[in-house]
């Protein structure tokens, strides 16, 4: 509904005064959405209507391509002002997307302090705490009083991304303790910081993965977490808004990877060629894998001619165990993703999945056995017993592999979502077909001669 | 790694003094984890070692069954103290899980104020802003100065879940504006609140769904959002820690529902019978649906006997278009989930998926055609042309349905993840088999018969 309001904004750029009022009155993210959906040529016109503070805020919310666009069409001085005012982590994110030449030009316009901050962040690998942190935070010395601390905070730049916690460091910049703004304003001004600061400071290292940072902040209900280097010196903080983005991104990755979208980072509205590049490899890999499955069936063509009801039973068998595998893999991968289970829980998890799998296997085995009985011509009814038995075995196998494979990947520090649903399904198809047809063929040889 | 430290804690309850020191020195969530994993009888012993503040904090982090357990084993007075000190939203969540008799007893021990707060929250439907909000927040009158506001905040209960924003209301308790604690401490004490408060207050209604609340807070980077009733009167706030839980819960739901786990709320380590109840219905429904697919194939048993290579081609055909459908559905459902696409984007999304689908369809059609050519005996090679064509048609259908079905469900306000992957896959199997076998059968009649 919010988006609707924006779309209804006077798009008539002729009435610039009204548009100026509207855009400066909107929340920055809404103004950003409005500007992003304008035709390319009108974006710079609309953007110039923003007053300075709003312009800086709005710029941070624009998608990278629109940001780049504006950098090319605005005056250099205006660009320099905006980029200087961005928070270091947002700026690092922007620089990641821009062509190297543009980044070089922009870096030269930055103040030495901001240039250093950006270089620090860009020095850490993607996906780590060092890369998503901001270098703007409040740092205090242990010896201060509350009153002195508050005065110091008041003197600092008001744009600090979060001043809700202040971090206390020793003479070597090592992180010692933390105090919240809440505690500061609730305590008498002449009390010493060290008397109220808590030395139980949950912290992460610069190389901690962003997913781990997010899980730790979630666990301890933090709105910011300090990031320290190997010598335990404070170098930055990660704030809660980044954590929400990280958790959403990781959930999207899990979902898409499970469905066989490589990278797990496809945007719903990305261009078709990107979509094809992300999805086709898995589909083709799957067909190649199916060649294996097919060569498992191929020698049995004679059997299928003899007992054509098999062509009906086989897809149900494959489909059901594939579905069971998909359920197990999804629950396991997500359980690992949210930190509900770790490799230590492999045994209890396997026990649970095998017990649940046994119940499921019996139900599905009976269902398939019954259906096969109904569909088979009288002389082929014996097939239904084998169908039911293979279903039970295949479902149990699905439950076991669906638990062990993601847990095993996690244990060796790989992404558990690499077990994509489709490949798992195809593998189970191949095994199921082969077992089923071998048993049928054996029975045919033994009983029918 | 954090969890490891806890597991290594002196479990030897004999050394109670050491354990007391350890437990009171831990972060509340870690102490909670330690207590939760103790044998039932030792939990109350360990819990009694906590000092009062730590006990209250730890209690909020315990899982509901352990909370219930402690309520039954601790002294009534201690229980009353803890429940009184809980934040109203956590208390409402606890009451949701407890037997009605226990809730009634606990309600009677509460102060009138806290009883009212809990009753208010429990009065709203599950999954709405009213149900997840807390009634503890800072409310100010417009006429105050900054100095008066800060004094007032200092006088209030320090346990307020968030004092980082204060909400300004008029004489009828209607929400007028918002001011951050940051603004308060940065401004001279004699300035009036109304001069610095922002009247662009993003708010939600009590009946707004929790997912919507989470998306709005994420969009505007808020750490708390005010909740108003139909008359726009302030009744509570939702805080960022709840939002993270909501977003994680919704992502888990999407993943599990797509994999055919009903409700989408299965815990990885839930007991087997719960697992079976959540998963078996979809598997059986799927087999029932497969009866449809099978009756589509059944009349063609003769055809399959004549051309046994069909039994190899058909699973690949079904499997591939099923996989395409799964990819499309997953990307679409997640895109809707994170608010990246809305029903308004149906046309561009469909255009993109059909274009990507066309590319994919041609690649897969050629692959299947080629494989069929290789596998078929010389007299059956014509089958490969039909196999390729049906693959193209089925993949395009998968792309179309995979986009339109979730978007359609969203448009009529149903959960887009209701299109579970397995049912979608089975439907496409049935259609693919029927089309394929009909065409083969037609060709056999025309050219060979």
UniProtKB/TrEMBL annotation, chains A, B:
Compartments it resides in? Cell membrane; Membrane
Alphabetically list the UniProt keywords.
CBS domain, Cell membrane, Magnesium, Membrane, Metal-binding, Transmembrane, Transmembrane helix, Transport
Against Gene3D superfamilies, the record matches this protein to: CBS-domain, MgtE N-terminal domain-like, SLC41 divalent cation transporters, integral membrane domain
Function as written in the Swiss-Prot or TrEMBL entry: Acts as a magnesium transporter.
What is the designated name of this protein?
A: Magnesium transporter MgtE
Q: Name one GO molecular function term.
A: magnesium ion transmembrane transporter activity
Which family does the similarity line name? Belongs to the SLC41A transporter family.
């Amino acid at each position: 509904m919010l988006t609707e309001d924006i779309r209804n904004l006077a798009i008539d750029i002729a009435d610039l005064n009204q548009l100026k009022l509207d855009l400066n009155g909107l929340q920055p993210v809404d103004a950003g959405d409005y500007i992003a959906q304008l035709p390319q040529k009108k974006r710079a016109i609309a953007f110039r209507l923003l007053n300075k503070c709003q312009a800086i805020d709005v710029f941070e919310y624009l998608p990278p391509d629109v940001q780049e666009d504006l950098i090319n069409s605005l005056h250099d001085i205006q660009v320099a002002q905006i980029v200087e005012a961005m928070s270091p982590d947002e700026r690092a994110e922007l620089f990641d997307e821009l062509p190297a030449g543009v980044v070089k030009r922009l870096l030269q316009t930055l103040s030495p302090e901001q240039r250093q901050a950006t270089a620090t962040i860009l020095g850490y690998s993607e996906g780590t705490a060092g890369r998503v942190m901001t270098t703007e935070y409040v740092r205090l010395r242990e010896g201060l009083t509350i009153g002195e601390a508050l005065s110091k905070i008041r003197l600092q730049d008001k744009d600090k991304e979060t001043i809700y916690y202040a971090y206390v460091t020793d003479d070597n910049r090592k992180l010692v303790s933390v105090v919240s703004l809440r505690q500061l304003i609730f305590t008498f001004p002449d009390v010493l910081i060290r008397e109220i600061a808590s030395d139980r400071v949950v912290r992460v290292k610069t190389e901690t993965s962003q997913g781990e940072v997010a899980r730790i902040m979630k666990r301890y209900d933090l709105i910011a977490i300090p990031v320290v280097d190997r010598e335990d010196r404070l170098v930055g903080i990660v704030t809660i808004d980044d954590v929400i983005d990280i958790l959403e991104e990781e959930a999207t990755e899990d979902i898409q990877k499970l469905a066989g979208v490589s990278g797990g980072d496809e945007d719903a509205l990305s261009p078709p060629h990107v979509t094809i590049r992300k999805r086709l490899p898995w589909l083709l890999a799957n067909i190649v894998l199916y060649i294996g499955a097919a060569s498992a069936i191929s020698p049995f063509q004679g059997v299928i001619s003899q007992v054509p009801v098999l062509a009906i039973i086989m897809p149900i068998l494959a489909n059901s165990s594939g579905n069971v595998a998909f359920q197990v893999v999804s629950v396991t991968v997500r359980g690992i993703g949210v930190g509900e289970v770790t490799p230590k829980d492999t045994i209890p998890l396997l026990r649970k999945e095998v017990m649940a799998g046994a119940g499921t296997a019996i139900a599905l085995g009976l269902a398939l056995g019954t259906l096969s009985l109904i569909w088979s011509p009288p002389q082929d009814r014996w097939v239904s017993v084998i169908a039911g038995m293979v279903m039970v075995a295949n479902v149990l196998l699905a439950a076991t592999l669906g638990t062990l494979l993601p847990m095993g990947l996690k244990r060796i520090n790989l992404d558990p979502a690499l077990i994509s649903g489709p490949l798992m399904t195809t593998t189970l198809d191949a095994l199921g077909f082969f077992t089923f047809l071998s048993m049928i063929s054996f029975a045919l040889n033994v009983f029918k001669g």
